[in-house]
């Protein structure tokens, strides 16, 4: 049967000379699209319609095909269809409710698809009549709320959430979806929270619920008071917040599992052997094979929870031997397809079973560990737009965490240690780290490891300046907390110092190329001031006096990089040009680093000459450093332990607008109510009704 015949709902051909018959529901749709009131000659028209299996494809295509004049002619019938759909949601007959929900979805999609350039008011008028819209939408939202909070079957609740996702994502830019004004007025926030707080309901619908909430929070968030933002920011109910954390944790865990599975597939076998034989030639290809589609919708939900609700920070930190997930509910599995953006949402098996430990030797986990592991994967390859957005959002989330006092206290708590196995990018000059050798440390060490890893692995032609700035600022905020609270963290600081010095070296080597696109002096200033933090306040937060000595050793050992940086910024700052002021700031910031180099270098050379040693060992250089601190003079630099707090508006507004648009398009693409799901639904409810 041809596609056209399918759309028209053709049943069969009785003979070659006769026209094919149409399904009864298609004939009834045709009556709606005629000028006359379909109930005029058949008072039971609407009752009969909702007993018929919906032909979504035909109804949507019919709505898309009507022209301007026809819209005016059939508007009353479309309004009536919408009204009777809403009324049918209150029916006891479950098949009518299912068909009404699917018809509403077709109405929202079909009308918007046809009228993409129309104003929101025109669309509202065509769907429900502008004068009656407020009451119609109030009735719709109340009935959806009732279905979601009541004793409805899980399949019906799933269908309600699908309809809401369909409604929210029906326009590319959700802030231009005027119908959502009614969703703001008639809030379903409490229904979403109820789903998240109930273990059985959360296991079935948690994923769709958090994605829906994340999207609703972003409706005109900068233009007016969004009640979903206000309500999310004050939620303090522990089971609800925990439930949201469980859903996010499981979605990120599923992504990490998919990545690990692909990674294991690529270990061993011919391809892996060939790669090891020829070095790094195929590393990019291996990375491509390991690529798993990112899940920005879940990341956005995590961001909104962390950013808006201070109480949610405690959820990030909760440790448990096994995640508290309910046993498989006895209620039916949702039968509509659930394939939101990015990875498939966690299967019910995943949602209803204890989490596998991140490490075979470690039985504890939490949302923050799972997120860090996720971030270590998506920040590896930032060439793809979705992965770049995910990496940026991961760093924004970490920025919010690094600024939060409670989160910082947990991150640095020496009594709560974790063994976190982060993913590392394959590089030819280093071996893959053995996960079993990872020590158990405070979680801040894993955050710093992630930042160091990013710094090392992204020095490339297409330089991700924005990500580097965020990365260095996260490190700075963590150091500010350590300085303020005098926390002596046992961390391999030399790895951080080495990574930062190599970053400066890269900026110097690629000055001309990078300056064509970026203000490299701002990044250089941030890096230099990290060293100034260690120089000025390191005695308050470095673990031992030896660590402070090693800092000076690294600065002196790599003095050529700092000397070259000074020459470069001095040259730029003494010439007229757009970077004069920015370069001048770096010149002033280098004063103490240059003082250290100029103080210790002659003494090291003198020590070597007196002792007739051509090449000093590290211990000999450290001995010179320790014995010459007294004569070193440094300048006190103000503001090193100050930072600008994160603010979404106005700096990040454009990013989030585009991110939400991308998420909305993907969710819309995946909210599918196909014929197969209808068959299953109708079979289920025909046994109930």
What does this structure look like?
- It comes from Poecilia latipinna.
- InterPro entries: ARM-type_fold, ARMD3-like, ARMH3_C.
- This protein has 34 helices and no strands.
- The radius of gyration is 31 Å and the shape is elongated.
- It is an all-alpha fold and 689 residues long.
- Among the domains are: 24-187 and 658-688; 487-644, no CATH class.
- The longest helix is centred in the middle third of the chain and has 28 residues, at 238-265.
- It is 64% helix and 0% strand.
- It starts with a helix and ends with a helix.
- The protein has helices at 3-7, 24-32, 45-49, 56-65, 68-88, 94-114, 120-128, 133-149, 154-168, 180-185, 189-197, 199-217, 227-234, 238-265, 269-278, 283-290, 296-308, 313-317, 348-351, 367-378, 385-403, 405-411, 443-457, 465-485, 493-509, 511-515, 520-541, 545-557, 559-573, 580-589, 591-610, 618-626, 653-670, 675-688.
- Residues 1-7, 10-17, 272-289, 321-344 and 347-363 have low confidence and may be disordered.
């Amino acid at each position: 049967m041809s596609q056209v015949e399918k759309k028209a709902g053709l049943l069969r051909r009785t003979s070659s000379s006769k026209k094919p018959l149409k399904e009864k529901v298609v004939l009834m749709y045709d009556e709606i699209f005629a000028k006359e009131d379909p109930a005029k000659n058949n008072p039971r028209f609407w009752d009969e319609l909702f007993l018929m299996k919906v032909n979504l494809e035909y109804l949507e295509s019919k709505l898309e095909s009507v022209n301007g004049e026809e819209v005016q002619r059939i508007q009353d019938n479309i309004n009536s269809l919408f009204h009777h759909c809403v009324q049918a949601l209150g029916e006891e007959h479950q098949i009518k409710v299912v068909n009404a929900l699917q018809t509403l979805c077709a109405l929202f999609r079909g009308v918007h698809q046809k009228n993409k350039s129309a104003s929101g008011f025109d669309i509202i008028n065509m769907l429900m009549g502008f004068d009656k819209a407020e009451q119609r939408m109030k009735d719709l939202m109340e009935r959806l709320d009732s279905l979601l909070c009541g004793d409805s079957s899980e399949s019906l609740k799933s269908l309600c959430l699908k309809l809401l996702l369909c409604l929210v994502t029906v326009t590319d830019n959700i802030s231009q979806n005027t119908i959502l004004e009614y969703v703001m007025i008639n809030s379903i926030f409490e229904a979403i929270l109820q789903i998240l707080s109930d273990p059985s309901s959360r296991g079935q619908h948690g994923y769709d619920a958090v994605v829906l909430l994340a999207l609703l929070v972003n409706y005109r968030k900068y233009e007016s008071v969004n009640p979903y933002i206000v309500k999310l920011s004050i939620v303090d109910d522990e089971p609800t917040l925990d439930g949201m954390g469980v859903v996010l944790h499981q979605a990120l865990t599923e992504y990490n599992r998919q990545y690990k599975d692909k990674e294991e597939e690529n270990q061993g076998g011919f391809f892996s052997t060939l790669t090891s034989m020829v070095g790094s030639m195929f590393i990019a290809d291996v990375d491509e094979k390991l690529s798993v589609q990112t899940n920005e919708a879940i990341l956005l939900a995590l961001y909104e929870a962390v950013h808006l609700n201070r109480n949610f920070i405690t959820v990030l930190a909760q440790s448990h031997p096994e995640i508290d997930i309910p046993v498989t509910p006895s209620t039916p599995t949702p039968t509509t397809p659930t394939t939101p953006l990015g990875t498939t949402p966690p299967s019910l098996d995943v949602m209803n079973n204890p989490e596998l430990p991140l490490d075979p030797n470690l039985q504890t986990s939490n949302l923050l560990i799972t997120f860090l592991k996720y971030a270590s994967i998506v920040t590896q390859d930032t060439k793809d737009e979705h992965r770049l957005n995910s990496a940026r959002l991961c760093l924004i989330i970490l920025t919010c965490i690094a600024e939060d006092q409670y989160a910082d206290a947990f991150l640095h708590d020496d009594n709560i240690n974790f063994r976190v196995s982060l993913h590392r990018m394959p590089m030819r000059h280093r071996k893959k780290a053995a996960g079993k050798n990872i020590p158990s440390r405070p979680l801040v060490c894993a955050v710093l490891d992630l930042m160091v890893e990013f710094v090392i692995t992204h020095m490339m032609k297409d330089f991700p300046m924005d990500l580097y700035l965020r990365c260095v600022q996260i490190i700075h905020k963590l150091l500010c907390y350590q300085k303020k609270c005098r926390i002596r963290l046992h961390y391999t600081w030399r790895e951080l110092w080495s990574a930062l010095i190599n970053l400066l070296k890269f900026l110097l080597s690629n000055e001309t190329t990078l300056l064509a696109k970026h203000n490299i002096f701002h990044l250089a200033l941030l890096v230099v001031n990290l060293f100034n933090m260690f120089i000025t306040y390191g005695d308050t937060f470095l673990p031992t006096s030896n660590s402070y000595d090693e800092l000076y050793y690294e600065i002196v050992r790599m003095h050529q990089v700092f000397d070259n940086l000074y020459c470069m910024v001095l040259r730029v700052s003494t010439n007229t040009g757009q970077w004069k002021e920015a370069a001048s700031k770096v010149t002033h910031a280098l004063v103490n680093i240059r003082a250290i180099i100029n103080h210790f270098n002659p003494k090291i050379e003198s020590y070597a000459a007196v002792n007739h040693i051509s090449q000093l060992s590290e211990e000999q250089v450290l001995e010179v450093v320790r014995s010459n601190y007294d004569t070193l003079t440094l300048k006190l630099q103000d503001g090193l332990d100050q930072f600008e707090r994160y603010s979404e508006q106005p700096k990040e507004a454009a990013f989030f607008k585009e991110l939400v648009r991308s998420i909305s398009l993907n969710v819309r693409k995946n909210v599918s109510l196909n014929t197969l799901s209808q068959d299953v639904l109708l079979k289920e409810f025909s046994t109930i009704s």
